Amino acid sequence: MARICALSGKGPMVGNNVSHANNKTKRRFLPNLRTVRIKLEDGTVKKIRVAASTLRTLRKNSK
C-alpha cells in the first residue's frame, strides 16, 4: 500500500541525514498517515488513509 494521503495526495519526501561531521546520507520523510473511517452517501463505511495535517485542516474548515 502506498504511503500517500487519499485526500491531499501528500507522499514521502527525500532529504539528507546530516551528521555532526557534516556527512550526508539519504533519508525519507514519511507523511503522518492516519486510518479514518468515513461514511459515504449510500450509507456504507470506508476506511481511508489521511495525513494528520489534512485532518486538522478538515476539522478547522468544518466549524
Automatic annotation (TrEMBL):
Pfam families: Ribosomal_L28 (PF00830). HAMAP family: Ribosomal_bL28 (MF_00373). Keywords: Ribonucleoprotein, Ribosomal protein. One of its GO terms (molecular function) is structural constituent of ribosome. Belongs to the bacterial ribosomal protein bL28 family. It comes from Campylobacter avium LMG 24591. InterPro entries: Bacterial_rp_bL28, Ribosomal_bL28, Ribosomal_bL28/bL31-like_sf, Ribosomal_bL28_bact-type, Ribosomal_bL28_sf. One of its GO terms (biological process) is translation. This is Large ribosomal subunit protein bL28. One of its GO terms (cellular component) is ribosome. The keyword Ribonucleoprotein applies. The keyword Transmembrane does not apply. It comes from the Bacteria.
